[in-house]
Amino acid sequence: MNAGFLSYIILTLSLILIGFGWRAQAIGNGSGKAAAVFCLAWIVGAASDWRYGGATGTFVYVPLLALGAHAVRTSSSWKETASIASFGCLLGAVFSLVQLLETLDPLVIVLHPSLDPVLLVGLLVAAYVRMPAAQLALLSIALVVNDVYMGSLYAEWQPAALGDREFQDAWWLGAATARAATVFGVSAVRRAKAGGGRIRGWLRVRR
Question: What is this structure's pTM?
Answer without folding.
Answer: 0.88
